[in-house]
Structure to design on (305 residues):
């Protein structure tokens, strides 16, 4: 702290910056400030140019711009982001999106434009996944049967507490729930208003992205959910000595592999049947409880004689 009027000690001559160094430091600071100002000015100029270009943008130009943005983006883009980046009108963007969704409709090529609940992303078709994984040398995201069952329960019964999950599955769900939280497939929605205040869970936008769902209304039936696990393909990949894409049909024709696929499918069907049965019992139990706890009906008024 400096006291007003107190004489400050002189710096040793060796510690004082030379006039050349002082000028260099001062010039460097002025240069950095000038660079920052120039960058901001360039950004303002570019934004003004984009706004001007947006006034005269044709539908074809809008389609080309969105196609480039979806190609370059690593994450799904929503309309607000597209408006901010392009300066196009909402009507022009919606029209361009509709055109791109037709061009990149699922099942028409190797790439599809997927609607993920108001956010869009260009994705490779599932049928080309083996080739893409081989090119990029990445492993597909795999979920254990326990994780799939727990995820299915949360998806269909959310908001749901962990004790409720365990009642349905009949086993402890702590480790599986933690793993699903770490993968960001589920999230904590809050606490239930009951004794103990247990946490309640629900699915996330990452869950929708993983299964290419626009929203929860697109959830398949429980038996269709089994197909999403790609259990059969995982078994085929485990048996393959070469990449799956190189000889899938030949490998699937192998009697040993075919028997394993049939066995695993039967086990999955059995597990899903048990899961459905448990859910039905839970529904019946809830209805019975509601009936028991319902207030008694008011007595009927006496009939007039």
């Amino acid at each position: 702290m400096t006291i007003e009027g107190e004489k400050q000690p002189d710096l040793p001559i060796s510690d004082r910056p030379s006039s050349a160094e002082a000028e260099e430091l001062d010039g460097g600071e002025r240069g950095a400030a000038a660079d920052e100002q120039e960058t901001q000015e360039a950004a303002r100029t570019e934004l003004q140019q984009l706004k001007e270009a947006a006034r005269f943008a044709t539908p074809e130009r809008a389609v080309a711009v969105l196609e480039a943005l979806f190609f370059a983006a690593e994450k799904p883009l929503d309309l607000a982001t597209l408006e901010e980046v392009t300066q196009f009108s909402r009507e022009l963007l919606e029209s361009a999106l509709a055109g791109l969704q037709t061009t990149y409709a699922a099942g028409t090529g190797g790439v599809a434009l997927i609607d993920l609940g108001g956010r869009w992303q260009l994705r490779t078709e599932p049928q080309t996944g083996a080739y893409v994984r081989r090119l990029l040398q990445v492993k597909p995201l795999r979920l254990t049967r326990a994780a799939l069952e727990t995820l299915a329960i949360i998806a269909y019964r959310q908001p749901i507490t962990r004790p409720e999950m365990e009642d349905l599955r009949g086993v402890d769900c702590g480790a599986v729930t933690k793993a699903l939280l770490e993968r960001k497939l589920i999230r904590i929605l809050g606490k239930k208003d009951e004794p103990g205040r247990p946490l309640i869970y629900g699915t996330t936008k990452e869950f929708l992205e993983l299964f290419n769902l626009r929203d929860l209304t697109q959830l398949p039936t429980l038996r269709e959910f089994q197909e999403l696990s790609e259990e059969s393909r995982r078994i085929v990949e485990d048996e393959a000595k070469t990449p799956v894409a190189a000889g899938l049909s030949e490998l699937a024709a192998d009697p040993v592999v075919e028997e394993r696929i049939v066995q695993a499918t039967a086990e999955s069907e059995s597990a899903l049947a048990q899961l459905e049965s448990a859910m039905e019992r839970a529904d019946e139990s809830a209805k019975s409880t509601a009936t028991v706890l319902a207030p008694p009906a008011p007595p009927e008024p006496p009939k007039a004689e």
Remarks:
- The radius of gyration is 31 Å.
